[in-house]
Every structure is written in C-alpha cells, then in structure tokens.
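Protocol step 4 of 6: record predicted structures for both targets in the notebook before any analysis. Target 1:
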Amino acid sequence: MSLRAHQQLDQPEGVPALALTGERTLPDVPAENYWFRRHLVVYEWIARRTGGLRVIDMACGEGYGSNVLAGKAAQVVGVDANPEAHEHARLRYRRANLRFERALVDTFSEQADAVVFLQTVEHLAGPQAALRHFGSLVRGRGVVYVSTPNVLTLAPPGADRSDNPWHVREYRLAEFEQLCRECFASVELLGVFHARRLRIHDGALRVGWDAVHARLGLTERFYGRFTPAIATSDFAIRATAGSRLERALDFLAVCRP
C-alpha cells in the first residue's frame, strides 16, 4: 500500500495531514474507514448522553471525537500529549465550546461532568491510577466512559494479543470488568457489534466469501468500494449479557465513582 493510502486526504487549508502509525485511528483515510467508524459510533452514542454537560475527552488524538461531543455538550476539552495530533486538532476543529490542551491524561486536572477515554486504556502500563484520576474529576454524579478493543476479536485466532506495538495490554471481558470495578463504585458494561451490511459481510465470510473473492480476483475492487462505504450505522452498541458480550468487538464501560 502506498504512503498516500496511509495519509489523511483533503484536509482544510493550513491543517497538516496526519499519517497512520497504528497509535490512533484517523478520519479521511479511505482504507482506515472501518476502524474510524467503529470508534466514531461510540463517540456519537456518548454525545447523545452528554448534552449540556462539561466533558473532557482524554487522549483525544486527531480531535474528531471531541468535535462530535461538542455538538451536544456545553463545553468540551480535548486532551492529548502528542504534539502533531494536538496541533492538527487545534487547527481543524473550531467551536466556541471546544478547546484542545496538550497534556498527559493522568495529570490534566479540571472538573467536569463526564470524562471520555476511548480505545486508550490498552496503551497504559498502570491504568488504575489514570482511571481513579478521572473519577476524581467527575465528583458526585459524574460519569467516566472507557472503551477498549476485545482481544478475542482483535488478535489472530489462537494468539494472546494483536501485533499493535502501541498496546501494552489487551483485555478480555472479565479482565476489563475487573479493572473498572477496582476503580469505580458502579460499572455498566456494553459491547460494540457489527450491524446491517457488516453483519451480512460476516455471514458471507462464514460461507466462504474470502476464498471466492480471492479466486475471482475481486479483492481489491470489492474492498476498495466496500470499506470506504462503511457507516456508523453498520455498528450497534448493546447491553448484552454473558457469552454474547464476551464476543463484542469493543467493550464500553459506563463508570461512576
């Protein structure tokens, strides 16, 4: 794949494009659209529940999620330590109720009604300190939203973890639940699942689609159209119990101190 395929396309004038490194997902990269939409659907779900609130988006990366939250929230602060991501977010996403701060997530201190920490806890060697810090920022009736990929759906079959070099620890459901319950008094667990066309695609894979498109030489043409067309509506967030939740793509914890 060319370098261009890993670079953001069509950025506004004066906004530096970011490149995919595996550390964070990005919008405006057609080949990355599946992962971007899979993350974006969680931001949209949280945005519908944080209208009128003060929100901190920890490890906000490129800034697209903070921008989504700011469409509903009273005030949003996007926090990230990476200088390139911070500068890009600051220049690209401009709203009166949105600002970006370059800081470490475990030391940034500002009171809020909600803290959002998505797809990042797996990057931390000592996540408990960060999660407890977030809880201290939403005293009283505040909420901390934490998500992480399910290692069972992220890693190759039979492997203990994926090959993402930025991940320190990848979680199974029971491990993620234990981590959250160590840090918060109340934890509600939900899962991200495929829906609509992605469920149909899953069914096609089960009956041998991988072999068919490869044999017919359709792989590049098919996925060159299919992947950029994926939307957030092709994912669903469900409060599913037991073994079904264990098979979720990502886990989402709604935590209260």
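Target 2:
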Amino acid sequence: MADQSRTIEPTVNLLLNAMGQDARAALLEKSRRTPIEVGEVLFRPGDAITYVPFPLIGTLSLVAQPDDMPVEAATIGNEGAAKLPSALGSGTASQELIGQVTGEMIAVPIETFTKHVQEEDRFRDLVYGYVEALVVQISLTAACNAVHHVNQRCARWLLQTHDRVAGDTFGLTQEYLGVMLGVQRPSVSIAQRTLREAGCITFSRGSITVVDREGLEAAACHCYEMIRAGYSRLVPLRDRR
C-alpha cells in the first residue's frame, strides 16, 4: 500500500468527524493518507487486517466471489470505513476489498483502531452503529441483486456512488460496473442506454455523469432509500469539530 509520511486531520470522513476533536487527533496520530486506485486490491480473503481504511474522496468496494463470479456486497465511502467487522473480530479479511472510484483514504493502524474502540465510548458507539448499518447495506444489496431488474440495480449503484464522490462525474467502465452488479457487459450496456435515454446520465468511455439526480432516484428500486435510511438511523454522523 502506497502512503505518505505525514499524519492528517480529516474534514471529509463523516465517521471520523463525528468524534470529539481530541479523540480524533489521538486516533490519527499514526495514520497515513494514501490514494485509492481503481481496481487496486487492498485486502484479499485471509489477509491480516493491518490497518482500517477511512475513505475521504472516492470509494471502496467489498466484493464477494461465489463461483468465481465477483459481485459487490457493499460500497464504502466517506460516510465510514472498511473492514470493521474483520478488524473487530478475527483480524483477517473475509472478503476482497478493492478500489472502486479514484480518491484518497486515511489508513489507521489496526492497533490504534482497536485501542480507541476499547477506550473511547463515543468512538465505540459510532463504530458499532456503522457496522450495523453496513450489515443492512450488505443484506439489502444481496436481496436487491436477487429480485430487482438490472436497470433498477444500476440506478441504485450509481446513486450510492454519486453520494460518495466529489462532483457529478466519476470514472467508470462497463466492465467494472458489470462486476459491481454481477452481470455481463451486454446487460450493463442496455441499462446504461436506458438511463441515458431517460435523461438521467451521460457516459463516455471510462466515465459517467449524473445529469438528473431526481430522475435517477425515480429509476432506482426502493433499496437505495432503505440503505440510506439505515445509515441515518444507526450512525449519528454529526460534525463534532
């Protein structure tokens, strides 16, 4: 994992910002800023969790691979952190974690993370609430992939990603979107064209732009709002700066 030699205090990650200033400064004392690169594998199943990633800009993807067919289980952005269940449990990764959209994250050493969970009541409550919200997202994503049309699922995924990036345009290939949705490229092409013809998005080679957010929300299944409501209910992400 590439990193820089300085610690930082975030102003973007909502989970970290919900901490008290002193507690956050202590948590980040040995942390590092590191880039998120599309397709970069941060952890594979069985890898030891050496740090906890807190995205600032861009997104990470938790990926399961049943029958060697990779499918996204959860999108993780600046609302929280990745690999929390593994960090709090066995200490080893159970699913693959990859870079989804280019950006930056904060890598908090696992020893520092677990120490603060044990000693800081506010941080522990935030982390446990976030883990529960993440379980809600994973469960609803699995159900959504099983019962909803690919066009609806595509709209949901684009909304979740749009929530977590800076601006309306982000890098995305049809091949990569197919992995996220667990479908073949022709199905992705049809879904993208349908959303473009509805005026919700435009796309060019390697990038996509959300041009009608309300239209995209109307095109998505209700799973998007259910996931968002889960985070709002379980994680009190108020700015504590």
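Step 5 preliminary note on target 2. The chain has ten helices and eight strands. The beta strands are 32-36, 41-43, 51-64, 71-76, 96-109, 169-171, 201-204, 207-210.
Proceed to step 6 after PI sign-off.
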